[in-house]
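Entry for flavin-adenine dinucleotide complex. Fields follow.
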Amino acid sequence: MALRIVVVGAGYSGLAAAKLAAKWTDAQVTLINAGDRFVERVRLHQLAVGQRLRDLPLVDLLAGSGVDLIVDRVTEIDAAQRVLRLANTSQVVRYDRLVYALGSAADMDSVPGVAEHAYTVATGDQALRLRERIADSDVLAVVGGGLTGIEAAAELAEAHPGLKVRFVTGGALGAALSERGQDYLRRTFDRLGVEVRAHAKVSEVRADGLLLADGEHVAADTVVWTAGFKVPELAGEAGFAVDDHGRLTVDEMLRSTSHPEVTGVGDAAAVRMRTGQELRMACATGLPSAQHAVRALADQLAGRETRPLRFRYFNQCISLGRRDGLIQFVHADDSPREAVLTGRKAALYKEAIVRGTVIFERHPVIPTSF
Ligand SMILES: Cc1cc2nc3c(=O)[nH]c(=O)nc-3n(C[C@H](O)[C@H](O)[C@H](O)COP(=O)(O)OP(=O)(O)OC[C@H]3O[C@@H](n4cnc5c(N)ncnc54)[C@H](O)[C@@H]3O)c2cc1C
């Protein structure tokens, strides 16, 4: 019987990993995903403002790849038996090798009131819920100073000029950007009418806005929470070694540090570079991690030596609405260089990168340099 590789999660990293595994190994590859569509998560702020996203059925993206697709939710990983249990069938799915690629979701439990009152752009359903809500909204607060929060605030302000958008962050505006990048972001938010509340720690979300740690109330009839992501608990529940955030801990070959038959990619895994630096949760890191993981898995199955993960950052690509953008060039460790690309050219650059991810999902490859 052929060796069976099962990939759980068909996001950016899992879909690519499944297709690459089918190409690079002789194993029978099965991909399990909760939904039947590929979700372009990096465009969910666009969905939230009413733009239409491409419909990407997984069966189409998998056509001709040899990967079997199961659309169902994984409810349990039985590490001892090496089987998976699913929500909608009593049949189990056996694996010899498991690729864990379940991604991440918004963390709605970190601050009181978030789960009850806030909206997010972390999943397609949540983005659509926000889209409906905006119709009845006058003042909206985006909480979270990371790239997702910046992109969401800009997109909302550009698409809804009559909506007052407040951007609330615990640190400085664009803290991870160079001085030029911060300056450009500040000017863009001014142009879009986004009001910035920097160094503001939110202690509670209420129906009428935010309560800050210093007791101040920031009024908003809609709150968009982008201030943290969490990962599914299945890895920890299965007894796999996980970090403090529940992410599968992996070695330089992307193998679980406790269960070598398990490989972790994307947001759900804590992937480190040789320097010890952890890769940030991003599509930009998920795709190379999938390429490297499959290369390592194929080498291991073929009895070849494999190279440890090598990775360097090049840039951070930020959309600022549909007509503006900010490309922050970075050093190998993701720290900002002074150089930035801005404006219309940056918007086009970002759009090309985002389109490129779907082209990659259609035709994934592993470069020889890996
Ligand atoms: C609005 C927004 C904008 C972003 N912009 C950028 C950007 O510009 N650049 C960038 O690099 N990153 C960006 N990101 C981050 C990026 O989207 C994630 O890092 C990326 O999606 C992670 O890929 P992944 O494959 O690990 O998981 P995901 O893409 O999250 O996919 C996980 C898959 O697993 C499935 N799944 C989960 N649980 C189960 C289960 N129990 N059973 C079966 N299936 C399950 C899910 O349905 C999903 O299909 C953005 C994120 C958001 C929300």
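NOTE: Residues 343-362 form the longest helix (20 residues).
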